Amino acid sequence: MLQASADIDTCEALTERQKAVLDAALRLLVEEGDNLTMTAVARRASCSKETLYKWFGDRDGLLTATVQWQASKVRVAPVDGKGLGLASLTASLERFASDWLNVISSDTSIALNRVAVSHAGSGKDNLGAVVLENGRFALARRLKPVLEAGRQAGLLDFSDAETAFRSFFGLVARDVQIRLLLGDRLELTEATIGGDAARATQQFLALFGAKTGPQGL
Amino acid sequence: MLQASADIDTCEALTERQKAVLDAALRLLVEEGDNLTMTAVARRASCSKETLYKWFGDRDGLLTATVQWQASKVRVAPVDGKGLGLASLTASLERFASDWLNVISSDTSIALNRVAVSHAGSGKDNLGAVVLENGRFALARRLKPVLEAGRQAGLLDFSDAETAFRSFFGLVARDVQIRLLLGDRLELTEATIGGDAARATQQFLALFGAKTGPQGL
DNA sequence: GCCGAACCGTAACGTACGGTACGCTATCTG
DNA sequence: CAGATAGCGTACCGTACGTTACGGTTCGGC
């Protein structure tokens, strides 16, 4: 049986068939939410329940494996911050904001966050930790080098990268994620996401941009 | 049987005994999350299951009634924005921010949001609508008059109150709510909440404060 | 004091679903 | 080709829980 750990590298030990099963489970999770049954997963994946139990131990094991499997797929290449000008910094920030909005508004992200939130209350909050680790904390890890590079280049001014990141996070996400999780119909087209990303970036630069003399009006 | 509507005034038709039952259900919901049983509610409330079903129809009815009951209790008196100076505006904003952080970090809020998120996926998303209506949208309704008054007084500068509110919301909440919902241990003492409220307010004023000439550094 | 309504406590029912056992087929290994 | 192993399909078991039914008790009205 696979060990359910918070480590992402667990997914490297998966055979192709197992990945296919997890993909089926993921699709079912997106469609039906947390109330999916083992029989439904088995039927969708064209495998037997016994195999599910042999591979993943029990229902929670299957769920965590599915979440980890999806989480391992959204790894994004970090950007390098060399030769950083104001234009490239804003471009990087806008890109991060846009990527993040696209992620949290995707069906799979909503489904995964829903099931993780549901399970966070009862005992083993493994799911929540995994989602958080590959979502918000992964974003922080990828964005902080950019912020630090911006500070090194004299473009940004902050004392703590963590608080700067959290402000950026708040300006980008605002109430989007909680509204989507609570089932609010909130249309995010490609265009509005771009606009929101640009707005958040400008606001962030207005707050944390290094002051190069008195600001004009 | 009580009708389960999104209207808050449904709670006015509740007898004292029913309110006591819903309070018991609420406490149990905070303790055990969504996986509470009807027998547990009946035992805790010292009432019979038959009464629960007669009053609330079924399990979902009980849950929605509980959520509406709690939602109806957090009504807060709106502040009036007359004789508004910069000091009183910042005080109001800080107070809103502090109140909001206190709300979303409370056990009952976390529990209610958890159960609402869990139920948002499957069909009738009544719970999510109720939580959203009495949480984020109620806050907006109470805060927007303050923002408008600030604009009337020449202290704030924005084109749309909704977007201004959403930025304020993001600066205040940042990643707090999603982290709490996902089970992240995130200590919010009274002191840190006050500091966060002040920081968010200053950031908001830096973004939306009316520019009265060139800013000093 | 009697009647009906409301309600408590609990026993019972039905079912859905997690988990297991078993028979069968296909593929690999010697 | 014989045996072993992996895995599919399915039937089955146990249990938890939503839902209902029923006997006993309190209480307001006549």
Assigned CATH class of the largest domain in chain A: Mainly Alpha
CATH architecture of the largest domain in chain A: Orthogonal Bundle
Order of helices and strands of chain A: HHHHHHHHHH
Assign the structural class of chain A, choosing from mainly alpha, mainly beta, alpha/beta, alpha+beta, or little secondary structure.
mainly alpha
Given as residue ranges, the uncertain stretches of chain A (5+ residues, pLDDT < 50) are: 3-8, 213-217
**Which word captures the global form of chain A?**
elongated
| Major sheet details of chain A | none
Q: If you compute it from the alpha carbons, what radius of gyration of chain A comes out, rounded to the nearest whole angstrom? A: 20 Å
User: Please, what is the average pLDDT of chain A?
Assistant: 88
CATH topology of the largest domain in chain A: Tetracycline Repressor, domain 2
Query: What separation lies between the terminal Cα atoms of chain A?
Result: 64 Å
Determine the fraction of residues in helical runs of chain A and give it as a percent range.
55-70%
What share of residues are in beta strands of chain A?
under 5%
Helical segment count of chain A:
10
What's the assembly state of these chains? homodimer
Count of beta strands of chain A: 0
* Biggest interface pair, counts: A-B, 44 and 44 residues
Classified in CATH, the superfamily of the largest domain in chain A is Tetracycline Repressor, domain 2
